[in-house]
Amino acid sequence: MISSIEVPFPSPEDLPRAFTRAWSSKDARLMASFFTDDADFLGLTGEAADGRAQIAELLAGELAGAFSRARLVTGKVRFRPVGRDVVIVQQRFVLSGIINADGSDAGRVGAVFISVMTRAGTGWLIVSGQFVVES
């Protein structure tokens, strides 16, 4: 587990790096801690989860399956405030090391992680997130 990530995040700008570090360590529980208790999430496989516990379970399944060897390379990030207490974060990634069902390498794909973040006390958490493959 990565102990140097502060959650809730002091700033929405902390999310992209923290997500990438947690993904690299395959720490689904840590990634789920980035979300509010009642958050919703759409994962790379198209599966949806409601609530932090289901999000952790979904991410753990994805990280143990097709994405067990996957690496993220960060691309362009965009922060769009929507009032004082809400920010939309759009982080582009390139994923490599994805495994097909037959065990072969699936190559690289572009993906985007879009998060709606809200103030949570003195910090920020994700209330809704979608990590989807770009077409």
TrEMBL record:
<dbReference type="InterPro" id="IPR032710">
    <property type="entry name" value="NTF2-like_dom_sf"/>
</dbReference>
<feature type="domain" description="DUF4440">
    <location>
        <begin position="17"/>
        <end position="126"/>
    </location>
</feature>
<dbReference type="InterPro" id="IPR027843">
    <property type="entry name" value="DUF4440"/>
</dbReference>
<dbReference type="Pfam" id="PF14534">
    <property type="entry name" value="DUF4440"/>
</dbReference>
<dbReference type="InterPro" id="IPR011944">
    <property type="entry name" value="Steroid_delta5-4_isomerase"/>
</dbReference>
<protein>
    <submittedName>
        <fullName>SgcJ/EcaC family oxidoreductase</fullName>
    </submittedName>
</protein>
